Amino acid sequence: MTVKTGLQVIVESFPNELKNKRVGLLCHAASVDLHYKHAIDFFTQLPCTLSALFGPQHGMFGQTQDNMIEWEGALHPVLNIPVFSLYGRNRKPTPAMLALIDVLIIDLQDVGARPYTYIWTVKLCMEACMEQGLPLWILDRPNPIGAVALDGPMLEPEYFSFVGGARIPLCHRLTIGEMAMMMQTRYFPSLNLRVGWMEGWKRSTLFHETGLPWVLPSPNMPTEDTAIVYPGMVLLEATNLSEGRGTTRPFEIIGAPFVRVNEVMRIVNALGLPGCIVREHGFIPTFQKWHGQYCNGLQVHVTDPIMFRPVETTVMLIAAIMETSGAEFAFKQPPYEYETHNAPFDILSGSAALRTALENHESISSIRTAWKESYGSFHATFKDITHYPVR
Prior knowledge:
Elements: H1 6-12, E1 22-27, H2 39-43, E2 49-55, E3 74-75, E4 82-85, H3 95-98, E5 103-107, H4 118-132, E6 136-139, E7 151-154, E8 169-171, H5 176-187, E9 193-196, H6 224-233, E10 253-256, H7 261-271, E11 276-280, E12 296-302, H8 310-325, H9 344-349, H10 353-359, H11 364-374, H12 376-385
Parallel strand pairs: 1-2, 1-5, 2-4, 5-6, 6-9
Antiparallel strand pairs: 3-4, 7-8, 10-12, 11-12
Helix pairs in contact: 4-5, 6-8, 7-8
């Protein structure tokens, strides 16, 4: 099976609405076709004028390795057009930026987890385009973990931030195009939004089954395996545990000098972790938390992505580490991703409920039950907006 992305579909049949228009393109390193040809190269050859480029977090080609590192734009050295950063002084396109174009086209590879910032850059672009009366196109791409079940808490509105701007679970199963349609309905009803839908994609497929090449969508998302664990392991960013940044397997390898690996393994093995095996794996991060220090660590190996529950697994691991580490474990304090009030863990998880449950040593089954009970409204939304078959 080979899926056609939204980019490939419109290249093969270029829409009349885009012909002879001044185009702005929001893209990154993974904005490629089946043969690795980049969207920029296509738009310099299509019957339109590429007038401006925009890039999200980590830069247009993944140049900012660590998390929460801003970058600024410049003039493109070959095309002689502006490259605007949307993760620096501005996260929302300004009227002056949008005055250079007639339409904004977005081609970004998302990874299926709510805290991944690209969709929230899309949300800010939607708001800016609606305010300026500018049409916006989304070129859809696979959710690489669309086959993985809904997992994790819902995001409550009072915790909206740049790592979460809609009431969805941590692992949500939607494509970037579907999320844009959902946000148009909820927040931007007057926006002229078009989605270039994929052809041949089913939600039951993982990325390696699409026939498309995996290009790092961000520096610490090296493989499909990373994407599968990420919706849960991203929570570790808000703790003093290393989430594996500074290793070659970020988010799959976790730990800290104080982790008592044998005791943690005893607890999680007794609980049972569906769809994965957890193994001892020490490491020394080359940057970020515990830089240069030996960390007692664990690696999560996903053996069955359909059975695997990324958030539930992470919560089990955190609970076991909290139980065995005492005061050495800590949740991080603000600021985090431009937020200075709410606790970082609460921002990522969706509310204070999960952190409170962990601090009160509530059972994992009760935590999981609360999540499932909160999915009612999302199930209805999911049914209304999904464009692709569920199975």
